Amino acid sequence: MPNSNSNIVKRLIEILLVSTRLGFTSFGGPVAHLGYFHEEYVRRRKWLDEKTYADLVALCQFLAGPASSQVGIGIGVIRAGILGGIVSFLGFTLPSVIALILFATVLLGYGIADTGIIDGLKIVAVVVVAHAILGMAKNLTPDLRRKTIALFAIVAVLLWSTAFTQVGVILIAGLVGFLLYRNQSIDDAGEDFKFPISHRFAGVCLALFFGLLIALPILREVTAHDWVALFDSFYRAGSLVFGGGHVVLPLLEREFVPTGWLTEAEFLAGYGAAQAVPGPLFTFAAYIGAVIGGWQVGLLATVAIFLPAFLLILGTLPFWNTLRKNAKVKGALMGVNAAVVGILIAALYQPIWTSSILTALDFAFAAVLFFMLVYWKLPPWVIVLTGAVGGFLMTLI
Question: Among candidates 68, 61, 65, which has minimal Cα distance to 29?
Answer without folding.
Answer: 68
